[in-house]
Specification:
The complex is a heterodimer. Chain A folds into 2 domains: 253 residues, no CATH class; 111 residues, D-Maltodextrin-Binding Protein, domain 2, CATH 3.40.190. In chain A, 68% of the residues lie in helices and 5% in strands. Chain A contains 15 helices and 4 strands. In chain A, strand 1, helix 3 and strand 2 form a beta-alpha-beta unit. Chain B is an alpha/beta fold. Chain B has a 6-stranded mixed β-sheet with strand order 6-7-8-3-9-10, with helices on both faces. In chain B, strands 2-1-4-5 form a 4-stranded antiparallel β-sheet, covered by helices on one side. The chains are: A mainly alpha, B alpha/beta. At the A-B interface, helix 1, helix 9 and helix 15 of A face helix 2 and helix 3 of B. Chain B: One of its GO terms (molecular function) is ATP binding. Chain B: Belongs to the ABC transporter superfamily. Chain B: It comes from Brevibacillus fulvus.
Chain lengths: 394, 243
């Protein structure tokens, strides 16, 4: 292999790719702008729904509304009483959020130490109706607590008689650890997905695209060893994946700071990571980028046409998504050792440990060694396919 | 000089080229004729080391295509038929310069060579424009410049005048004559019989992967008794089909 030839091909590939609008949009614009925009729009839309649900709680209250419970419901902020002809139909149509039936002699029964059923009908498939139900439940619970307190007082007992234990909450997690926990979910997911997707357009273009356009044949007829061509293309795909993952990291930080999962402090979200953690993170991301790049180039070489390559790339996305989503709910203590040697699982698991600040040396060794084996395997496969003459001509 | 000794190429069950032996001397232009699928492109690809012969040997200026691939590639410039093989997002100059650099040409010499070729092929007006917006003829000229940038001793041209207008084709023919005078070995495949007659010293006709005639045009005319080249070509193929 010749380093100056690799550098020459690598520079040309990057120049060529950066002049392609599709590639630039895929690598930069989508992770940096579109993903935060989607999160922002979802959060705005969700808070809009919640605001409306709080401001307009339209209820049908059946039975004697003059009783204290009825009055409490009517005085609750946002509650409006409606009296449609067909309350149930109105509930189905979403005009009414819930129907509460207060028994006529509720107050009398309660004074006699009796109990009663309050029937609440709501639409569990409608978030606003569910919010109304929760509100009614809170009002009833408050009222019930008062009735219980009055009954205890009448019996000469303190409220603590029925609440002998009081829970005092105190978390020992530092702010950095809490930020790490927050990041350990979304950041590895976005990093791995962007590493996988960021190189797809480049890998497809650099081999299958070149075969289709006839430039591959021109390139392999030049006095350049196949190994140098493949190395330059591998580095190009890795760079595109890396750019995409950095863009994803920036957008994740933006989401975490200003989005729906916003962290409390306003500083840079990754500021709590030490230099060792950052180096380890970069190393594992490089190995993952090399693995994805090798795999994508092998697929692109195998494919006969550009379109065929695009189709074959879809499983790469799933291969990245499945482990990433499976790892999402796990904390480092829950991750089995096997995951540290499985492809993609290992990188995702180690990323989690890094963000949690609980890096185990055994896990680092397992992850790095197994990743090296996978990288070597996919590059060997890509090189073997790249040297098959019938796969390189269109 | 190109020497082919009983060259065969098989793709699984298909024999694309069968026991072809041929010699092309320095300073000679050989026209390669044959219908589509006759094996012309496969033969050229083997000479350019893109495909490896299944059997037989090809020697280019003393270098074996099996064992000295990089040396062979330095001797050769190949223009492919079909897709032109240019990077659409690079300018004409960038395309030519990239291949020049791959051949290890020094920057000063490369800049001079690009100017020389662009003048020769009359493409100064669009040298710094991106290739993506070019017509087929303009692209073909850039591709020819790419092939010749390292001043190869052996030039393999597969359908080189496809897409060229009358003026450009004439410029190209002048270029071929100039290269012949400079002692280059030129293998030229075309369906354009007039062009073959104007440029080639000898012709080789392929049919179903086999070489069915190799010699001068006057000799071929004498063998079949036809003067019209298209008719002559069809007669050769018909006779070959009867075998």
């Amino acid at each position: 292999m010749n380093a100056s030839l690799i550098w020459l091909i690598f520079r040309k590939e990057l120049t060529d790719l950066f002049r392609d609008r599709k590639t630039v949009i895929g690598a930069f614009v989508i992770p940096i702008a579109v993903i935060p925009a989607i999160f922002f729009l979802v959060s705005v839309s969700m808070s809009g729904v919640e605001e409306d649900a709080r401001a307009n709680v339209s209820l049908v209250i059946l039975g004697d509304v003059e009783q204290p419970l009825g009055q409490r419901l009517l005085q609750t902020e946002g509650v409006k009483r409606l009296q449609p002809d067909d309350p149930l139909a109105s509930l189905h149509e979403g005009e009414v959020r819930a129907i509460v039936t207060i028994p006529d002699d509720l107050e009398r029964h309660l004074r006699q130490n009796g109990s009663e059923q309050i029937r609440v009908r709501y639409d569990a498939a409608n978030d606003k109706s569910v919010y109304a139900y929760d509100l009614i439940q809170r009002v009833i619970a408050d009222y019930e607590q008062e009735v219980v307190a009055e009954r205890l007082q009448a019996a000469g007992l303190e409220p603590s008689v029925i609440h002998p234990l009081e829970l005092v909450e105190e978390s020992v997690a530092s702010e950095a650890k809490m930020t790490g926990k927050l990041l350990s979910g979304i950041v590895p997911l976005m990093l791995i997905l962007s590493l996988a997707t960021g190189g797809i357009a480049a890998a497809t273009d650099l081999v299958a695209g070149e075969k289709e356009r006839g430039t591959m044949e021109a390139l392999i007829s030049a006095p350049v060893p196949a190994g140098s061509i493949l190395t330059a293309k591998l580095l190009t795909v890795m760079v595109m994946s890396g750019i995409s993952s950095v863009a994803a990291l920036v957008s994740s930080s933006l989401i975490i700071q200003v989005g729906p999962f916003s962290a409390n402090d306003g500083g840079f979200a990754l500021g709590f990571l030490g230099i060792g953690s950052i180096l380890l993170l970069v190393l594992i991301l490089l190995l993952l980028a090399a693995m994805f790049a090798g795999l994508e180039l092998a697929i692109s070489t195998w494919a006969k046409t550009f379109k065929e390559a695009q189709t074959y790339m879809t499983p790469v996305l799933f291969a990245a998504m499945v482990p990433s989503y499976m790892m999402l709910p796990l904390v480092p203590a829950d991750i089995p050792l096997l995951y540290y040697v499985l492809p993609i699982f290992n990188g995702s698991a180690l990323c989690k440990e890094i963000f949690f600040g609980e890096v185990q040396p055994l896990h680092v060794v397992c992850t790095l060694l197994s990743s090296l084996v996978y990288v070597a395997a996919v590059i060997w496969l890509a090189a073997a396919l790249f040297r098959r003459e019938k796969l390189l001509i269109h | 000089m190109i020497e082919l000794d009983s060259v065969t190429k098989r793709f699984e069950r298909l024999t694309a080229v069968e026991r072809v032996s041929l010699q092309i001397q320095s300073g000679e232009v050989l026209g390669l004729l044959g219908e589509n699928g006759a094996g012309k492109t496969t033969l050229m690809r083997m000479m350019a080391t893109i495909l490896t012969p299944t059997e037989g040997e090809i020697v280019i200026n003393g270098f074996s295509v099996r064992h000295q691939q990089v040396e062979v590639r330095r001797q050769i410039g190949i223009l492919f038929g079909g897709e032109i093989g240019l990077y659409n997002r690079l300018t004409a100059r960038e395309n030519i310069a990239y291949f020049g650099q791959l051949y290890g040409i020094a920057p000063d010499r490369l800049a001079r060579r690009i100017e020389e070729l662009s003048e020769m092929l009359e493409m100064q007006d669009y040298l710094d424009r991106r290739v993506g917006g070019f017509s087929r003829g303009m692209k073909q000229k850039v591709a020819i410049a790419r092939v010749l940038v390292h001043d190869p001793q052996i030039v393999l041209l597969d359908e080189p005048t496809t897409g060229l207008d009358v003026g450009a084709a004439s410029i190209f023919r002048a270029l071929i004559r100039q290269m012949k005078a400079a002692g280059k070995t030129i293998l030229f495949s075309s369906h354009h019989m007039g062009e073959i007659e104007k440029l080639c010293d000898r012709v080789a006709i392929m049919h179903c992967g086999r070489l069915c005639y190799e010699g001068t045009l006057p000799r071929l005319r004498a063998m079949y008794g036809f003067t019209d080249l298209d008719e002559l070509f069809l007669q050769v193929l018909e006779k070959e089909g009867e075998r």
